[in-house]
Amino acid sequence: MVRLFDEPGTRGSEPLLIASLLRTPLATAPHQQIVYRDVARYDYLTLRTRIGKLAHALSELGISAGDTVAVMDWDSNRYLESYFAIPMMGAVLMTVNLRLSPAQIAYTLQRAEARVVLVHHDFVPLLTELRAQLPLVTQTVLLEPDAADECPIGPRRLDYEDLLAVADADFAFGEFDERAVATTFFTTGTTGMPKAVCFSHRQIMIHTLAVLGALASPQHGQSFRQGDVYMPMTPMFHVHAWGLPYVATLLGVKQVYPGRYEPARLLALREREGVSYSHCVPTILQMLLDAPQSATTDLRGWKVTVGGAALGESLARAALARGMDVFAAYGMSETCPFLTATRLTGGDQSADGAAEITRRCRTGLPAPLVDLRIVDEQMQEVAHDGETMGELVVRTPWLTGGYVNDPTATAELWHGGYLHTRDIATIDQQGVVQIRDRLKDVIKTGGEWISSLLLEDLIGRHADVGEVAVIGIADDRWGERPVAVVVARAATVDHLDAAALRQHLAAFVLAGQIPKYAVPERFEFVASIPKTSVGKIDKKHLRAMLNSNVSPSAN
Ligand code: AMP
To answer: Which residues are CB-neighbours of 284 under 8 A, at least 6 positions away?
Structure first.
């Protein structure tokens, strides 16, 4: 039997709490800057003071340990303050996915039992519209409001800066169990309604250290370390902006928060503040390169981790041609999210640098502490030959324990003792992983998920539709776009067209059931849809045919 060293939280085993991430920067870089557009610029000492004030203001609003506080904001210094103040109180930070449909936003706020919502001016009309569906929310606090804004929920209008101005900074943050829930948010990368995942202080702390290890240690190229200037370009509502604000704070580097992502502003901040490290999905990188201001901005030396979807070689090539240092990483909402990052070897001697570009785009090697396997249906590891495909499953100390209140989906996620990513990958002799396909019935467009099953259901409700399949097709700009393959009912085969179906879907957009970007541009009308041997729609077959531009009816 093992001999236990100590109980967590007793002598020698201080609990792993998010508050301790602030210690080193406050001691070693107290005057380092935090910048939010042209709106705020202050140092780490002020950050710490404002964290105390925010906690104090929230406790005055009745928030205590275990309560959920939701944030609906673009990337800002206030979001960073929430990343610390709310979990440091023992409360739960809910980061609201701003790209969900109104109905889904209401659903997620309700399910998370949010009591207070910090809301940016841009979302005040939305929250006002939803207020009848949010009986548990007692108060909203306005971020960057207009004078005319009314508070969507609560007895009186409260503004964030006014609250902080009068709040006491000396909030007594207590010490508690490191397994306390720190954050929660909803993933739409599954079928059905969005599902809640949550992460503890302990998990976020270990994740922070492991990501630091993965990004700060490479011998060649890609790195994030002291001296860098950090600016996120993956929204702070999406998996803690991949956890990088916590890493940046621990490093004590200058941090720049850009608000809503507009290419011109991101490029201007890069130049003015000297941003040297960022992370984003491929679509944002493409937008930056395509922006008119890009031609006159010096992008040289800008290190950018690209994840959330595969980094294509042509995009990597375009970024490298501008002097950027781009490299791939991989993870998912359920995994906090970091799992792998590519690693350069520094040994590419080929004349055109092609091997290095390929290396930059690979899904990569496991981060420290990640037990990653590629397995067949019997959970047996596949050959490490770079060719045999299997499902990527993982264990690490920072994975979600399951979907909140959803035992069936949790059991599927964790069957066999490993977290199932539903991604299909290969692994080679050097342990390099490459994602090849996806088992999930979801489509990723511009970094956001669309459920193909939901779209099939909605399109199928049109009276003239006999059968429908929706699949994701590669798209240079968005990564993937949904394409609907439709069989019309015999009697209506002559008059059913794309315009009618788009109009049909517009009603669901208006009702807040699906976001606008879920409506396909392309509809293919066919005589029949190919099926697998067991009668299921053969999406793999459809995808291959549409990708090669062969009409799906041609089989
Ligand atoms: P999300 O939960 O929205 O962060 O999405 C996670 C999913 O995005 C993964 O399970 C993959 O399907 C996909 N993904 C993330 N990073 C990559 C990558 N580097 N290459 C390919 N797919 C990726």
So the answer is: 233, 234, 261, 447
Instruction: Please determine whether the domains at 41-176 and 200-438 fall in the same fold group of CATH.
Output: yes
- CATH architecture type of domain 200-438: 3-Layer(aba) Sandwich (3.40)
Is residue 187 among the annotated active site residues?
Answer: yes
CA distances from 78 to 40, 63, 314 (A): 10, 18, 36
Per-residue tokens: 126: 């939305």
Is residue 444 part of the annotated active site? The answer reads: yes
The CATH class given to the 443-547 domain equals alpha beta
Residue 342 annotated as catalytic: no
Does residue 360 have its Cβ closer than 6 Å to ligand 1?
A: no
Q: Quick one: three-class SS letters along 29-43?
A: CCCCEEEECCCEEEE
Tens digit of pLDDT for each residue in 359-376?
A: 999 999 999 999 999 999
Tell if the pTM clears 0.90, that is, is over it.
Answer: yes
Closest ligand 1 atom, residue 340 Cα? 19
**β-strand pairing of 254-257 with 229-230:** parallel
How far apart CA 327 and CA 352 sit, in angstroms, is 18
Residues 175-205 as b/e (b if ≥16 CB within 10 A, e otherwise) read eeebebbbbbbbbbbbeebbbbbbbbbbbbb
* Closest to 332 (Cα-Cα) out of 435, 225, 200, 261: 435
